[in-house]
Amino acid sequence: MEVSFIDFTKLHHEDFRNKIKERINHIIDTNQFIEGQYNDLFESEFAQMQKSKHALLVGNGTDALEICLQISDIKHGDKVAVPAISFYASCEAVLNRFADIVFVDVHPETGLIDPESFKRVLAKHSDIKAVMPVHIYGMPANIKELENIIGDRNIAIIEDGAQASGAFYHTGPVGSSGHLTTFSFYPTKNISAFGDAGAILTNSDKMKDQIVSIRNHGRSPEGYIHIGRNSRCDHIQAAVLHLKLSEIEEGNLRRKEIAKRYFKNLKDVDLQLLPDEFLETSSWHLFPIRVKPETREKLAQFLKEKNIGHTLGFYPRSLSDENLLKHFPGESEVARKFTTETICLPMHPHLEDKEIDYVCEQIKNFY
Ligand SMILES: *Cc1c(COP(=O)(O)O)cnc(C)c1O
Fold it and tell me: Ligand 1: which of 87, 88, 163 to mutate, most ligand atoms within 8 Å of CB?
């Protein structure tokens, strides 16, 4: 049996294709190539789904982070706390603002930002201006605890929800905290475009106006009022995203079922799963397992021989060990260890039970 890591053919099934072709034809007929009705529809429905006042589409998830740093007034030389495990874009956005990174270590069981490490890092760098927690693998980071640590200090929280569309904190969906929250709709994400797109959530009317202007060259009806950029979302991408929104709830439910089946099948195997408290709350963007560092490459090779899609790439090393980032201070000891242990198994809404069982059978055979 061959089990793919992700399956675009099943994601873009016949019915979806027909509907999207109709929408694209309509866009060609009406010449509305940049912002159009589907941008408005997606923004209002996505805001509703994530329980935020506003959702604004932008060009991609990295732009979304950078724009959030800009409107949080992060400038040259300001310090921004970033978890040592994330996609590189978390750091890239800070560098593009000419700001400085301070690394925060992760929790040893989850890879999520560790509030205890944030507390220590903040004691050392009391001039930190923003922190960018990442809802890694789809699990909600502990935002409440970060808020408690920050107290009445003027430190912006910018949440990276790129992997967490449809995930929940205990109090509501990711993005409902009221902090600026970013999303990516890169083709492999839970909600995915036919190319690049991203979004920002905010409850602030003022920030909404700033984002609307910045993503469109800093324009306003009176002229150019911000240092802007071109980070508009194409109408075709918005049409795709709006159609995908109608499938996200079902898709995430299936991901949850798949996660539960993996948990059930693998519970007696000598490897670590993410804590089961996240079974109900994660968007299960990825399904990492943790194995002994000396077993990892061997297991990867074995899965390859059995035609089972997998990757060691999420994430290959702590961000603090990237050449361009090595000189930044902070903590990352746990992240260094965590990244030597993880291997991601197939996870997508169209995975069948028999495929999951095959993957688990083979892992048991390996052990
Ligand atoms: C995908 C991703 C991004 C970047 O999104 P792009 O749309 O590729 O720019 C940022 N942060 C995290 C955690 C991601 O997974």
Answer: 87
pLDDT tens, residue by residue, 187-244: 999 999 999 999 999 999 999 999 999 999 999 999 999 999 999 999 999 999 999 9
Q: Which of 36, 8, 19 is nearest to 243 (CA)?
A: 19
Helix count and strand count (H, E) for the chain: 12, 11
* Phi-psi domain of 77 (left: phi exceeds 0; alpha: psi -120 through 50; beta: other): left
CA angle 66, 70, 73 (to 5 degrees): 145
Q: Are strands 223-224 and 287-290 parallel, antiparallel or unpaired?
A: unpaired
Name the residue of 6, 57, 62, 188 to mutate for ligand 1: max ligand atoms within 8 A of Cβ.
62
**Cβ of 60 less than 6 Å from ligand 1:** yes
The CA 362 to ligand 1 mean position distance, Å, reads 31
The pTM (predicted TM-score) of the whole model is 0.97
Q: How many residues does the chain have?
A: 367
What distance, in Å, lies between the first and last C-alpha atoms of the chain? 19
- Give the closest residue (by CA) to ligand 1 atom 3: 61
Measured distance CA(131)–CA(122) in Å, rounded: 10
Q: What backbone phi and psi angles, to 5 degrees, belong to 62?
A: -75, -45
Q: Is the CB–ligand 1 distance for residue 163 below 6 Å? A: yes
